[in-house]
Amino acid sequence: MGQKVGISARHLAREFVVKGLYSWLISNETQDSADIDAHMREQENFDFADLDLYKNSLYGIIRDASMLREHFAPFISRSYSELSPIEHSIMLLGTYELINSLDVPKRVVLNEAIELAKDFGGTDGFKFINGALDKLAEKIRIHE
Hints:
mainly alpha; N-utilizing Substance Protein B Homolog, Chain A; 67% helix
């Protein structure tokens, strides 16, 4: 089966990262990142994803999850443990990219997170994601 029409390799990589993080979160963070990675690589259309973005993000987020949560916690209205696994996954990814992917403009990071929330999250989850990441971006990316 072919790649979804109109989906970039980078967006597809982010989708697989969110799915992998979702799996990790619902396992109470006990699932090994290598096991998650192996499972994601078996999914349809994985070969069309940006492998470097996917791998660096998935492993980096799982490794640095505590630090990433510390960054976004002041900008959410509830504890991160009360977030849905999808919102939590997207917040981790967005925060990771804002901190580590300085070559990606903050507007792109925010737009990607919003699109992921619209695709996978609840009805108004994208509004929550947008508000929290926008405030975080103002703090982290002050020169943009």
